[in-house]
Amino acid sequence: MNLGFNAQNANVNFQGRYNLSNYAGCLKGGAIGDALGWPIEFRRISEIQKKYGKDGIQDLIIKSTGKAEITDDTQMTMFTADGLIKSALKKLNLNEMPDMKRVFKSYKLWLDAQFGKIQQKNEGWINDIKEMHIQRAPGNTCMSAIANGVPGSISKPINNSAGCGGVMRVAPAGLMYKDNPELAFKVGAECAALTHGHPRGYLPAGVLSEMIAHIVNGKNVEDAVNETLKTLKTYKGHEPVTALMEKAQKLAKSDVTPSEAIKELGEGWVGDEAIAISTYCALKEPKDFTKAVKMAVNHSGDSDSTGAILGNILGAELGIEKLPAKWVKNVELSEELGQLAKDLYVKPQDIEAAVVRYPY
Ligand SMILES: [Mg+2]
Asked: Residue 8: inside a domain, yes or no?
């Protein structure tokens, strides 16, 4: 596989902070948060402190492969990108909704990979990555909804799930649709609604996606949240999501300790709790990725997902250079995520060897 990048082909816009570094930061930051939280995903804070000390887990756990493991959050993020890119290559119009059936098909590739189905050939380079074929606590709602074979949508929900499996995977929608942040909201929310039918499951995905779009356009996290809340409030069933997001903003400005604040926001198993906890951590430590990501994972809830979402937000804000170099090097799929950042950064038609890497 050619991981090279031909900058001349890239129709690059250097306005604002729209910059490849922010794209790579978003995806690799997400993977780092995912990997930091994974060893403690199902542990209460008391157990975490007993095992790792009073401040909780402080470093990536390196496995025998020499890398820290990512989980379903990062795997599905990559398959979201796979589906969106394949759809965009077919349609070549980023001002319209993508073909959501194409995104669902990419999620089906992920599900098949999880269950060791004979690897399907010619489905593109992301499907061929061996770490996609290893189970790392995949979410039940995602698995059952995809296995059912019927893609859900906001207008035709397929279940009543509000889990965080929708929001944890949609950062690429914000990167790809950054020129139209309100559309980015809809794309992110519809990606989540493929498997999660409750507004508390899909609207947080819209929130993450639009926030990422604003951030790569140059807004800081605080302004990105304020802008995104305006869009959120136009959607039916937004009230609980809005309430938690506003609570996160308020807590970030207060002197409530982070551990108390996170407790007030929930545990992150539900979509709105996950986006609220991650947003709170990004607002609380907007300049220090290391502090923010440790804050986002060291609690009794869904640590890898809140870590991953925080990593997407703050990685996009700070750019790859401001993430700890050791973690960027040691996290699984770092090189592949770097390639994916480049593919999302250029126009779809400028992706090198698109026909081979994203067959559609
Ligand atoms: Mg996970």
From this structure: no
